[in-house]
Each structure stands twice: as structure tokens, then as C-alpha cells.
Amino acid sequence: MMELGWHRESPFDESTTLERLTQALQARGFGILATLRVHEILKEKTGTDIPPLIILDVCAPRFALRALTVDRGSALVLPCKIVVGREQGPLRVTLQRPTVVIDRLYPAPALEALGREVEQELVAAIEAATARTPGAVRAG
Description:
By secondary structure, the chain is of the alpha+beta class. The chain has helices at residues 14-27, 38-46, 61-70, 98-105, 109-130; strands at residues 5-10, 31-37, 53-59, 80-85, 91-96.
């Protein structure tokens, strides 16, 4: 069984990681639709402190349009999610893998290839954002 999440550790702090991730996503045509700072929300609502946990809803219009054109029901699995967080140790950037989401939650054979394409782009963005080499956030 394939894992739902794919992750990389970031050698950078939270702010730098988010900045680099935003740039790497934009270089590949993705935008961040929403940023949920779960740790801040829980602190405000429950008074409980948890380690940083940020959920990003990301989307590339060209991919969303293709998915919706193939199967309008695919809106159920849009947008893609990336989680940036730390429990103990290094900061992790985790992608909720589109291929697994499509396979498990909305199995549509016509969307499988598109899911692979989206996942490749998002993995490349995360790898670029977490790489130590200068200029690595540019699209390949």
C-alpha cells in the first residue's frame, strides 16, 4: 500500500522554508490558496500549545481545469495539501500525494495520469525548496 504522505526535511527555519516553498510552487505555476496555521488556531481556541503545524492548500489552475474537465467530481479532491511542521527534530514538509488521494478517495482512471503529473511537480517544488543549493527553487 502506498503511503498517503511523502516528505522531506527542511534545513531551514519555518519562515525561510515557507518563503522558499512559495517561490518553488510559483515557479511551477502553483499558488497557495489558503494557509492554515493550525498551532495558532488551536492556541486561540483551546489555549493549548502544540509544535508548529501549517497546512497549505495549493493549486495550479492548469491542472485544476484539466481535472474538472475530465471529471467535475474531482473537485472533491482539490486543492492539493502540503503540511509544514515540526514535532521533534527537523522541520518537515509533507505532501499529501495526489496519486494516493485519487486512488483511495476518488478513484477515476481518467485522472490517474494527471495525478502523477501533479505529484511530480509538487515533489520537485518541495525538493527545490528544501535544497541547500542557491537558486534551487527555480523550475527545472
